[in-house]
TrEMBL record, chain A:
GO terms for molecular function: mRNA 3'-UTR AU-rich region binding; NADPH binding; quinone reductase (NADPH) activity; zinc ion binding. SMART domains: PKS_ER. One of its GO terms (cellular component) is cytosol. CDD domains: PYR_PYL_RCAR_like, QOR2. Keywords: NADP, Oxidoreductase. This is Enoyl reductase (ER) domain-containing protein.
TrEMBL record, chain B:
It comes from the Bacteria. Pfam families: Polyketide_cyc2 (PF10604). SUPFAM superfamilies: Bet v1-like. PANTHER family: BLL4707 PROTEIN (PTHR39332), SRPBCC FAMILY PROTEIN (PTHR39332:SF7). InterPro entries: Polyketide_cyclase/dehydratase, START-like_dom_sf. The lineage of its organism: Bacteria, Pseudomonadati, Pseudomonadota, Alphaproteobacteria, Hyphomicrobiales. This is Polyketide cyclase. It comes from Reyranella soli.
Length: 484, 145
């Protein structure tokens, strides 16, 4: 006998979820694999004993009978009577429970059945992933559907004309040129998004210069944006036209009005996160999330050195690390930025443009040094970083604003039993489950006020070159966004 | 008889959360309101029938008896033998269920008890929010990934 269990949290009150699930014939409306369904003999869909007779989109045909229904316990039990699939003795139970913390719903879906020897795994996956996990996503999308939004994708496969900022050849800010571009109709697994705000990141500068060879000019750059779903390709179950969404992912190409990209990298925005905040926070917020929770699990009481503490990622690191109980020391280039960094939670700041900070850090820590260094500087600060590190400290280099390392100082790490990490966001977000978790934790941190964004730098998309110039001049504070 | 029910989602696998809470003598380690605790008679803290005798940070003493403990269901229940709460027939259950979507934990904590009718509202809030939800909030911090 095979037992399959899946469970999920649905972000809606239990009454709302149950109103849908108690209807034994509602699955055509929300389940992505169900094509057509009728209740036999015109019986009501909440009549215990009634039979739903349905076809799947892959052509299979199933008859299922409702065995038990309890509005008191939020439980529905049903079995397969006959099916074109080789499954026997299939009995499934859907159970909902109230999550009082946040008025959400816990959904538990379990079944037992038999299938021909040797095909157990195939059918366990079919049921667990295809039916149950697919059902969770389908119901979530159904609950998000706005009145008036098309239930299925709009007809037509036409390409949409748009404008974008393209790197014409590798070089300075002026190689960014406005050009007409096209966003094609989404292929299976893709989504087309109309951008409302686009985030600017230092990685865009590296790519524009050709230091990170992630594009071949002429091509648009940009790693993150927020907007609204225009249409979705086949097989996309977690998004619907009209959904407010955001993403931060490779390959580059976000400096455009409308973009077609893999749906797996796109997350739905909670109502309380506005588009500008989302565009500014996806890459930097999820970067801070993994740096503080994954690359290093920051513990209360640790001393943290954050470079560029008034920068986009730096400010988030300072706020979040302090909330986690760490003592945060930041390096900044000006007194103005030092004030901003202290307001974000830095217990002390070190001001300078010459990458000399180790002595000041040792003074500030009684000679102990930093347990963790969040380093976006790279080569010019390498020697000082090693010096600033405490015994058994963790040096995390997530960017190279001063240039890539000539040579990794591996042997010098031994002098302090130090750990060196060179993390990349897109490796952490490659799995959809991890991406969702990172995005949710970032949104939650915004909601709770753990991190706050003060967006002071907005530019029209066509002024991307100016945004780059100001970012590179180190005169900006906090995030920069482009508005198409 | 009134029932208080509190549930939450904890961002860690169920076995990890269970390891934190299965010790019937472990309240001081994960709740914000218990100062110290001991098991009476030197019994192991996972022996059914054992009694935990603990002091709240506000000074109150409570004695509770372990009624059930299941490592298979991630569930335990207990009754109050003595407390300053003014409740009778108090039986509480704490249960964890894995959430496969995201590898998290659905945590439930409920109690049934009798009390003076005019104290039902206040006690429900004190127990549901002050004890159960506060315990969950504390767990969320402790097991965060």
């Amino acid at each position: 006998m095979i037992r399959v269990t899946r469970s999920a949290i649905i972000d809606a009150p239990i009454e709302r979820v149950w109103a849908i699930l108690r209807d034994f014939n509602s699955h055509t409306a929300w389940h992505p694999v169900v094509a057509e369904s009728v209740i036999e003999n015109d019986e009501p869909a909440d009549q215990v004993g009634c039979v739903r007779n349905f076809t799947l989109k892959d052509g299979n045909h199933i008859r299922e009978q409702l065995l038990a229904l309890s509005d008191n316990d939020y439980v529905s039990t049903y079995c397969i009577l006959d099916a074109t699939l080789p499954m026997q003795r299939y009995v499934a139970t859907v159970q909902l429970k109230r999550v009082t913390d946040g008025d959400r719903t816990f959904w538990h879906w379990q079944s037992t059945f038999d299938t021909p020897r040797g095909r157990e795994q195939e059918f366990a996956d079919l049921v667990g992933k295809g039916v149950y996990e697919g059902g969770f996503e389908g119901l979530r999308a159904f609950l998000r559907r706005r009145p008036g939004a098309p239930a299925v994708r709009t007809a037509g496969s036409e390409t949409m004309a748009t404008q974008g900022m393209v790197v014409s050849r590798f070089g300075g800010p002026d190689v960014l040129e406005a050009r007409p571009l096209e966003a094609r109709f989404p292929a299976p697994g893709e989504v087309r998004v109309r951008h409302s705000a686009i985030g600017v990141n230092y990685i865009d500068v590296y790519i524009r210069k050709g230091e990170y060879r992630m594009i071949e000019p002429p091509a648009p750059i940009g790693m993150e944006a927020a907007g609204v779903v225009v249409d979705v390709g086949d097989g996309v179950t977690h998004l619907l036209p009209g959904d407010r969404v955001a993403y931060a992912c490779a390959p580059p190409g976000a400096y455009v009005g409308v973009r077609t990209l893999p749906a797996s990298q796109v997350v739905v925005l909670p109502d309380e996160i506005d588009d500008e905040t989302a565009a500014a926070v996806m890459l930097k917020g999820m970067t801070a999330e993994y740096l503080l929770h994954r690359t290093h699990r920051l513990r209360g009481g640790e001393t943290v050195l954050v470079h560029a503490a008034a920068g986009g990622v730096g400010l988030l690191l300072c706020q979040w690390a302090k909330a986690l109980g760490a003592r945060v020391i930041g390096t900044v280039s000006t007194d103005d930025k030092a004030r901003v960094a202290r307001a974000a939670g830095c217990a002390a700041t070190i001001v300078g443009r010459d990458y000399r900070f180790a002595a000041a850090l040792h003074d500030a820590t009684g000679g102990r040094g930093a347990d963790v260094i969040y380093d976006g500087l790279g080569q010019a600060a390498a020697r000082e970083n090693l010096e600033a590190l405490a015994m058994c400290g963790h040096w995390i280099c997530y960017g190279h604003a001063s240039g890539p390392f000539d040579r990794l100082p591996v042997e010098s790490l031994g002098q302090k039993s130090a750990t060196f990490s060179s993390p990349v966001l897109f490796h952490y977000t490659a799995e959809r489950a991890a991406l969702t978790e990172m995005a949710q934790r970032t949104f939650e941190a915004l909601r709770q006020g753990t991190i706050r964004l003060d967006i002071r730098h907005r530019y029209p998309l066509s002024a991307a070159a100016q945004a780059h110039r100001e970012l590179e001049s180190r005169s900006t504070v906090g995030p920069l966004i482009l508005l198409p | 008889m009134i029932k208080v029910y509190t549930s939450s989602v904890i961002d860690a696998p169920a076995e990890q959360v269970w390891a934190r809470i299965r010790d019937f003598n472990g309240l001081p380690g994960w709740t914000p309101f218990v100062a110290e605790s001991r098991i009476e008679g030197g019994l192991p803290s996972d022996k059914i029938g054992c009694v935990r005798n603990f002091r709240l940070k506000d000074g109150g003493m409570i004695r509770e008896q372990l009624l059930t403990l299941s490592d298979y269901d991630y569930q335990c229940s207990y009754s109050i033998l003595e407390s300053p709460l003014g409740v009778d027939n108090y039986v509480a259950t704490l249960k964890l269920t894995p959430v496969t979507d995201g590898n998290r934990t659905f945590a439930e904590w409920w109690a049934e008890f009798d009390c003076a009718p005019d104290r039902e509202g206040q006690l429900s809030r004190d127990i549901g929010q002050g004890v159960f939800q506060a315990g969950f909030d504390s767990l969320k911090m402790l097991v965060r990934r």
